[in-house]
Amino acid sequence: MSRHPDPYREIDVQADPAKLLESLEVRARTPAHARLRRRFLRFLPVRHGDHVLEVGCGTGPILRDLVTLVGPRGRVVGVDNSRNAVRAARVLCQGHGRPQQLTVRLADGGRLPFAAGRFDATIAITVVLHVADPLGLVREMARVTRPAGRVGLQDQDFGAVVVSHPDRVLTERILRGVVDRMYEEPFSGRRLPFLLREAGLADVRVRTDVYEDSRLVPWTKNFLERRAELAVRFGIVSPADAQHWLDGFTHLVANGAFVFTMNYYGAVGVKLARA
Fold this sequence. Notes:
- The structure is a single chain.
- The chain is an alpha/beta fold.
- It has a domain at 7-158 and 184-212 and 263-270: Vaccinia Virus protein VP39 (Rossmann fold).
- 40% of the residues lie in helices and 24% in strands.
- The protein has nine helices and seven strands; from the N terminus they run ααβαβαββαβααβααβ.
- It has helices at residues 17-29, 31-43, 61-70, 83-92, 134-143, 168-182, 192-198, 218-233, 239-254; strands spanning 51-55, 75-80, 102-106, 119-125, 145-163, 202-213, 260-270.
- The protein has a seven-stranded mixed sheet, sandwiched between helices.
- Helix 8 runs antiparallel to helix 9.
- The mean pLDDT is 96.
């Protein structure tokens, strides 16, 4: 078993990889999340005929978006370091695009198995938070991108989460306590422009989007329940306090007073031509 508290860093060694992968599909099917990723792909932008690499593709929802955007002359490649994710993505991506137009491979984002300058655009969406060496990842993404090509990153930022709850002290203790124990850099979203510039990319642009939910849809419900579960596991709160916290959301939803938002930051840089 993995000793790291972030299960998405090493999906294959978890007790139930299928459950983690299904959570990725739940997120992908959530309309607000679908809008976030599609706005980012337009911001990149992805063009007809592009050859695009997605690093950390998971079960492939973004690959399925990309194959439509690049059109019949384009090519999409996804890589992930999880064998379970690669198998799932290959199944879920069947029927999207022409044969050989979409490929999924097992690979580490820090050691990509591609020649330099191969892709028009290289992207990583909700990946930076989960990697041990974000700058090394971005440098490798830049290496396989052609001169004048684009490197794009999008990530959530756990320092920009807002949720309504009658017990604000308990809410802060759970949300902040869990991320401080799970991630080396929980505020990853706001660091994306820095990573691109440090990797030598130019003309860095930034876009901020907000995930919003006022109905407690399944993805948000799962997110909050997972935070409560981890807060108990990490010894931040008691099981009774965790249940009290979750019950508070149920009451708010019943009264039409529930609000949850999280900032997502996107950053795009251009690879300079080298002499």
